[in-house]
Design goal:
CATH class of the largest domain: Alpha Beta
Helix content: 25-40%
Strand content: 15-25%
InterPro entries: FAD/NAD-bd_sf
Protein name: Squalene monooxygenase
Strand order of the largest sheet: 5-4-13-14-15-12-16-18
Structural class: alpha/beta
Radius of gyration: 23 Å
Bound molecules: flavin-adenine dinucleotide
Keywords: Monooxygenase, Oxidoreductase
Shape: globular
Organism: Micromonospora sp. CCTCC AA 2012012
CATH architecture of the largest domain: 3-Layer(bba) Sandwich
CATH superfamily of the largest domain: FAD/NAD(P)-binding domain
Oligomer: single chain
GO molecular function, one term: monooxygenase activity
Length: 462
């Protein structure tokens, strides 16, 4: 069918851009509205504060993005982005166990978040029928009198000036944009719960897992011989040592280092403090890098209080003509790097549902999204539940899986096949059940059990 009608997307970050890509095959016009004045190049902006923090695009996300935007791999490489073999070129320390490396087809692009967003934004701008209205804030939904359909959005645009005694936002113009479909990709702070409540809808049940994560990211000049010649390093947080670190290459010859703390643990932001914090991690390469590499910019700090999942699929009444997408639907603990990949999978789902046609798009979308969010949500929340301070249901399944994966990390110090299987699940390429094939079960249970203590546990809340 020829594209027809108009879709409006609230938010032009990764979620909104990916939604627009899916919508552009069905709608003649796709209008993306973002309250930020969007930059012309790869720059940080206010509406995406997490853009200053290290972002890793999982291999599954890379696969989907390159399917949606053919040639994206080559374009990123041409812009100085470095492909990294995730199993062959990274020092992995899972629960203190050094994973045995082996070449693999799992690839992560070492790039900054603003660059990825810029490249995708350029691709989406070039799609027929797509218009991006930068500096346009959506302030509400337009709903039919019977409240069954969302038919557009209210928009406020222009330069913010102090509100005068007219009681209105002087200097800003207010108008409406009619739409056959409104997709809210406004992020974790999506206003849809408030707007839908004003239209008489019940709030979507919300699941919240408090993790109190603090990120500190800084970039350093990349020079030969660093990281023992490899391209990345990672040490995860474990109960008793709620600290983690990741190093990944960035475009323009830099390494980005993120130090993170969970459950209130705070990485410092001064040179000595950061190096000392990194030296308490099991991956000695991270501390060595911080002691010797030259910083390029000041450190950026960000706090992430809780993972939040809004279960729209559980609502009995939903308006048609409106969807919530991306982080507005589920905002994952960033440590697992899942957000952009899940948004990309939602874009594939939306594209398929639109191509199928038919009624009840909202219900079909939320049901499908719930099915694709379940595995990464269980993976991240299940792993967070290893920390006794994290509140949530520790079912027998969660406890068994965590005990098993702990044994798998020990066995992967010598068995590269087990490490590869784990990384494929972590990258959302394979389902978690792949870790439980009979052959792997035997190898995990026969493998070494004890943690290999590489470093003494350092100072802090341990
Ligand atoms: C510290 C941190 C680290 C992360 N690391 C990773 C990682 O390594 N890998 C990964 O895949 N994901 C990561 N994520 C998650 C990732 O950033 C998001 O999943 C991704 O940006 C998609 O989110 P989104 O587009 O739905 O929302 P956002 O990125 O939050 O964007 C929302 C957009 O909507 C706009 N907006 C909001 N309200 C309005 C309105 N009313 N009108 C108009 N515009 C509006 C904002 O300006 C913004 O552009 C991380 C997140 C955090 C917090």
């Amino acid at each position: 069918m020829a594209p027809a009608g108009r879709a409006v997307v609230i938010g032009a970050s990764m979620g909104g851009l990916l939604a627009a890509r899916a919508l552009s095959e069905t709608y003649a016009e796709v209008v993306l509205l973002d309250r930020d004045v969007l930059p012309d190049g790869p720059a940080n902006r206010r509406g995406v504060p997490q853009g200053r923090q290290l972002h890793v695009l999982l291999d599954r996300g890379r696969q989907v993005l390159t399917a949606l935007f053919p040639g994206l791999d080559e374009e990123l490489t041409a812009r100085g982005v470095c492909p990294v073999d995730l199993h062959g070129e990274v020092h992995w320390y899972n629960d203190g166990h050094r994973m045995r490396r082996a070449p693999s087809d799992l690839v992560a692009y070492g790039m900054s978040r603003p660059l990825l967003e810029q490249v995708v934004r350029e691709r989406v701008h070039a799609l027929p029928g797509v218009r991006v209205l930068s500096g346009h804030e959506v302030t509400g939904l337009i709903v039919t009198p019977d409240r069954r359909w969302v038919t557009g959005v209210r928009v406020s645009a222009g330069v913010r000036v102090p509100v005068g005694d007219r009681g209105s936002a002087g200097g800003r113009s207010e108008f409406t944009v009619a739409a056959d479909l409104v997709v809210d990709a406004g992020g974790r702070g999506s206003r849809s719960p408030v707007w839908l409540a004003a239209a008489g809808y019940r709030p979507a049940p919300e699941e919240r897992v408090e993790v109190d994560v603090t990120y500190v990211t800084r970039t350093y000049r990349r020079e030969s011989g660093q990281l023992e010649g490899l391209l990345g390093a990672l040490a995860n947080a474990v109960p008793g040592r709620p600290r983690a670190g990741i190093v990944a290459p960035q475009e323009d010859g830099r390494f980005a280092v993120v130090l993170s703390g969970v459950l209130g643990e705070q990485p410092p932001t001064d040179d000595e403090g950061m190096a000392a914090f990194a030296e308490t991690l099991p991956a000695p390469q991270i501390g060595e890098l911080l002691r010797t590499a030259r910083p390029v910019d000041p450190p950026a700090r960000m706090r992430f209080p809780a993972s939040v999942r809004r279960r729209y699929e559980r609502l009995r009444r939903l308006p048609e003509g409106h969807l919530v997408f991306g982080d507005g639907l589920c905002s994952f603990n960033p440590i697992y790097g899942q957000g952009m990949t899940v948004a990309a999978l939602e874009a594939l789902l939306l594209r398929r549902l639109l191509a199928e046609g038919g009624d009840g798009l909202a219900r079909r979308f939320y049901r499908g999204a719930a099915r694709l969010i379940d595995p990464p949500w269980q993976l991240s929340v299940g792993t967070d539940l290893r920390f006794p301070e994290v509140t949530g249901r520790r079912t027998l399944r969660v406890r068994l899986v965590n005990a098993y994966v702990g044994r798998l990390h020990a066995a992967a110090t010598t068995d590269a096949g087990l490490g590869a299987a784990f990384l494929r699940v972590l990258n959302l390429v394979d389902p978690p059940t792949r870790l439980l094939t009979p052959g792997r079960l035997v190898r995990v249970l026969r493998g070494p059990r004890r943690a290999v203590a590489r470093r003494p546990v350092g100072v802090g809340r341990v």
